[in-house]
Amino acid sequence: MRRQLKSAAFAAVTAAATLIALPATAQDAPRVAAALPGIVTDKAFNENIYDGLVAIEDKYGSDIAYTENVSQATQVEVMSDYARRGYDIVIGAGGEYTDAAERVAENFPETTVVVPNGAPTPGVTTINYNNPEFGYLLGVVAGGMSKTGVIAALSAQKFAAFDNVVDGYRRGFQSVQPDGEVLVAYTNDWADVALAKEAAYNLISKDADVLMPYLDGAWVGVVQAAQERGAHTVGILHESESNLVSARLDFARALMMAADLYAEGKLEPKDYVIHLTQDEQLGDFNAIVPEEVQAMARDAIQKIKSGELTFD
Question: Where exactly are the transmembrane stretches of this chain (predicted)?
Answer without folding.
Answer: none
